[in-house]
Fold each of these.
Amino acid sequence: MNVWQFMLSHRVEIVTATREHLVLVLISMAIAVIIAVPLGLALVTNPRWRAAVLAVASIFQTIPSLALFGFLIPLPFLGGIGMRTAIVALVLYALLPILRNTYVGLTGVDPAILEAAEAMGMTEEQILFRVRLPLATSFILAGIRTATVITIGVATIAAAIGAGGLGTFIFRGVAMVSDAVILAGAIPAALLALLADFLLGLLERRLRVT
Amino acid sequence: MNYDLSNVIIEFRNVEYRFPITASRPILAGVSLKIYQGETLALLGQSGSGKTTLLKLINRLRILSSGDLLVESRPVRDWDSIRLRRSIGYVIQEVGLFPHLTVEQNVSLVPALERWPAAKIKVRYDEVMQLVGMNPADYATRYPRELSGGQRQRVGVARALAADPAILLMDEPFGALDPVTRAELQQEFLALARRVSKTIVLVTHDVREALLLGTRIVLLDAGRIVAEAAPREFLQLDQPVARKFIAASELVPGAAQ
């Protein structure tokens, strides 16, 4: 059976898996953004934590994804089999790109502009939220974009711990030694990644301040 | 003379400034200077002479290492730095307009921070824009990147004037402009300075600009004040650094010898 025949005959299953995949990615990304952006903001006012926080975020990213899922399973609350564990792992992966871009964007603002803000009598907090943050928006978005593409890819592995998604087909295809089944998961995942990259890229360009 | 010699608004008393970390030679040393209400003081000096640092001590962008600095008879260290800065207008060469804000938002920033009522902010925006020769309505929704260098500089001045500060600090405000626009803005500056009756401290490395705009010139060299004169007397000074400046400006024929 070739790929297209397989995909056509399993279209309902594929749509369901794509939806699961999207839900997994969206929830993980939402949590990652909610953690990483404020953390990035906090690092600007507490620079001595910068090295430590970025190092921890980097460590998560160096752990092979399958191993990270495996490590999480025995943990209480966070672990176990299923979607919750998968989300925890995906969030840990997505943190670094968002955090790093947020920090770099916030601290990369033209010093002349920052000095003007200071000279006008803006407080530290006003400078952070009214000057640094708006000027860093496209940077932060670029980080979110990178993280989203990574998450869509890594989320296929979530199927290994029973979280569903497009990875289900990939693992099944590997077990069955069937390229068609693997591709039925891999192609929609790749398309999702390309689409997310394109849309977030558009948004990023629109929000860029020159 | 349109300024009041009995009313000192800023006073440096033997001020020294050195970089907080290194113990190298001071950036400013032994600076004593009275700045009077309503004058335009031109701080003249080469790059590295400490003139910009001197300016930044006034609104506490830099903190002096020793000596005393009084603004409106109060030591700067006793001022709340936010209050101090909001009561002093500041204009810099690269303008420092916020690229993500419109012209109106840029100009209205300090009044907005000060929580003026919206109607009053609007009136003030119109006022200061007219003062710098720009149509308030035409530029309200434009962004800095849509303006020419001269227009940006005008908006920068409008922004500095918005909260009606008594003191205006200007760091080479016309330095980045082409010669024609610069001359134009310098003329407008003169008219403006007469109308607003502010105390203006202007940093420049250009003798002609100092002579044209200053009601008094203070010459800095290697962190020290080496000469102080009215523009008319400045050309006659015997002080060597002053002679060098005058010679380089080619204002006095033969001064180079």
Note: Residues 4-249 of chain B form a domain with the Rossmann fold fold (CATH 3.40.50.300).
Amino acid sequence: MNKFPMWKYLLVLFALTLGVVYSLPNIYAPDPAIQISGASLTYAPDGAIQSKVTSTLDELGIAHFGEELSDTSLLVRLENQDDQMRARREIEAALGDNYVVAVNLAPTTPAWLQSMGARPMNLGLDLAGGVHFLLEVDTQKVVRDSIDSLESQLKKALRENNLRGVTVRAGADAMRISAKTDDLRDEVSRLIRRDMPELEMRRSEEGGSYVINATLTEQFLKEKEDYAVNQNLTTLRNRVNEIGVAEPLVQRQGRNRIVVQLPGIQEASDAKKILGKTANLEFRLEAERESLVSMRERFDFRSELDQRRFGGAELERSVLVYGRNVVNARATFDQQTSQPQVSITLDSEGATRMNHGTRDNIGRRMGVLFIEYKPVTRIIKGENGEDVEKVEQVAEKKIISLATIQAALGKNFVITGLDSPAEASELALLLRSGALAAPMTYVEERTIGPSLGAENIALGVKSVQLGLALVLLFMLVYYKVFGIAANIALAVNLMLLVAIMSMIGATLTLPGIAGIVLTVGMAVDANVLIFSRIREELKNGVPNQSAIKAGFDRAVVTITDANLTTLIVAVILYAIGSGPVKGFAVTLAVGILTSMFTAILGTRALINLIYGGRTVKKLWI
Amino acid sequence: MHMSDQKIIGFMKQRYIAAALSVVLIAVSVFSLATKGLSLGLDFTGGALVELQYEETADLNEIRGQIEELGHPGASVIYFGSDRDVQIRFQTDDPQRGDTVAKAIEAGSTQDTEVQRISYVGPQIGDELANDGGLGLLFALGVVMLYVAMRFQFKFSVGAVAALIHDVIIVLGVFSFFQLDFDLTVLAAVLAVIGYSLNDTIVVADRIRENFRMIRSDDARELIDISLTQTFERTLITSLTTLLVLLALFFVGGEMIHNFATALIIGIVIGTYSSIYVAANVLLLMHISREDLLPPVVEKEGEELDELP
């Protein structure tokens, strides 16, 4: 009695091995490091930068090793954590504005573990230090814009269809259309139903006029919102990648929010400068020679090469299409000539405007302006004569493309005549990433200093150790041999918990550590249930082996019931919680699952190995 | 099942005293919540928080003076963990304000300081969190009630939920009475208390169900006493081990986790008590009987019912 079939032992062994392998990377302490990346694609760090960085560090007497140069960034490991901030400052000063320097923790996972996909847990901001932003996308602006554009579309349609005696007034989120007669209103409503499916209509009669209240449909609103949030998300990702931090997080949260987390960044204002670098695009026709001076504007080219070649160009003042109309832009190749090109897709509003603007202007050139708003910090005199820092947004407009219009353009068109595939992809990136679809505001902002993070880790580790030691001691004294089995199971449980958290790429936060500690305390519950059942059976005079069997079998039902309900709570916590609460919920949920596994199967396997299949005189329980 | 010769503890003898105690605790908690309310943390109130570490003991009055000059007379300035760590909290709608204040205080201080933490939470976030948190609590209670009703029986789910509400109100009451800071981590702790207390209640309920089916007796009170006695050892030990690790968190876990540990410690003590006295009491009050717990007889043809173990 009380012997497991081989496969159950093997299963336990298998889980154990997985646990060891995937929790192992966490015990290799990461190296403090400095990461250098280019401020834009043109400035990727190379060998020259590497030697400049190393010589800077050598001069300062900062011990460093293991430089790694990748396509986009350079990583330099430091011997000493205390040198990190100084090294960052000095390298930043040495390299100038074209490079972004961030502090970082470089994992030291051995190659054989990496080859199995094992990696350490990500540390949350409260442990690693860094900045956290929560941005809210102003979707009301999107709604307003949609209403405005529908208003002009409708007015135009009314004119074209010769419908007189209709007034259209656009509000913040609805349009009011009043017609003189009922018939007229019917016509307008037919028109809207045919051409503007995004509008919902409600009729009413007010003071002798026949009114339609048109609002945007829920589905259309949601689409617009989704589009705006996703577009902003992409733009933010591109900008965050420019900062070059190790594990940036840019994620949508809820309906209209975006979380940005940048570990290793110390100055929230620096990060905000990069995130706030709002850029936009304008498609404008090249000014004709004979046009009025007041109608044209001179711009420089963005690429230095073009600027040297052509020395700028004059464009018309009126804008054909804006960046927000660009749905997509991809670097592709011309199928016949294999020349690099950029394929652009516009939204319907953009397509119409582009078509109207280009069909009578074939043969002329069209320029694309890239507008970057750069925050510039200026020192001005305050009220009392003191110096006050003031951040201002300054627009910088440069031409990224000037191409001849060869046909009337519409929804899809291409820009050709590019020198290289690299130029094509850079242009596509600029066209795509330039625009924010809607403005954003900061609704939450947190900066956690690096020393607080380190302190939190130290405290967390200490409380896990102390808590674990207390529980181990107690179990050993109270349950003797069975206590040893439970303690081994508990240690394995902790290891499995860490392994799974590392495997699923969960982020460890301070509340997460608290969750681990709590799991340690609660995980023994399953074993306590089993053991007290066995004790009970023994007291009732049941023979030793049967008591073990009955104890395990009966307790399993209770354990499942109790743990399932707790799991429900953990899932709810995860669903409603944000940030820290989510971290806690994940640990709690994973802890419940691993503790059920180790307590039911793991402890059983051990007890079976110790007592199973033989006559036992006395159970040490 | 053999009848054990174990001495049965007469838990239910004291049930009126226990009920009175629970009523008093809840009344005090509700009163405190109604009059004093919770001392909500930054997560809920919105505003800015700055934490600075000074080289030596920081002079709070001096910092208060600095803050007042910066135009935040209502700011709270307190020690956080030690007398070198200072936490400043004030209301603002400007995400940049925390940064500015931190820089100004650092510049104006005679000591070397290091910024540990700057947080800004917009007003809309706070309201939302409070709503979501409350909603989450209610939702958790609802789901639990449903689950227990399905898995056990309706009367058990009333008992379990009564115990949970009892625990949550008392934990909140203690936080209100002593005006401890109630932030997001404490909310997580309260929800964890629900999980823990439920765990306890289910274990007891499981045994009650088993005994009602196994032991031929119509004395509900005796059966409940037997069940509570049989699970008492386990209840105590699990609470003890959990308390051990929580004490570790409480004493060495650091300031940011302190209130989290406090909430859980209170919750676990109350939860242990409620799994014995509240849940079981409600069962007696609702006249739980053998019939309630027998596996349901299949009446309609083809209708499948949960086979209860």
Note: Chain B is about 65% helix and 10% strand.
